[in-house]
Amino acid sequence: MREIFIRYKIVIFRVLGIMMLLIGFILFFWMSPKEGFSENEVALANLARMEASVKGGSATTSKQSQKPDASKFVQELQNAQQQQVQYLLIATMIFGVLFLLYSFISKPKNDSEI
């Protein structure tokens, strides 16, 4: 096993580096919140407002389900978990870059080894 690792060390580090960078970027962009509304969502909201103004009422029903408010502790826990995931993604990307850099650094060869 050790001989295989030594023989294919450069390939292993490059594959690990590329995989870690890919996974880090994919998860980062997948988990990032959506910043704005699409044109369709804005158009639907405008249409609902216009229909409500024509009917003379509000667009929402009178019987709204009230969600229980999350406690401050739960919100802080969720924020802490989000920060931990962000730090993990950053660490994954940094290790990916380090693996790639290490794989491209050439080891100086001594004439005594030949």
From TrEMBL:
Origin: domain of life: Bacteria
Transmembrane feature ranges: 12-31, 85-105
Keywords: Membrane, Transmembrane, Transmembrane helix
The protein's name: Uncharacterized protein
UniProt organism field: Sulfurimonas denitrificans (strain ATCC 33889 / DSM 1251) (Thiomicrospira denitrificans (strain ATCC 33889 / DSM 1251))
Species classification: Bacteria, Pseudomonadati, Campylobacterota, Epsilonproteobacteria, Campylobacterales
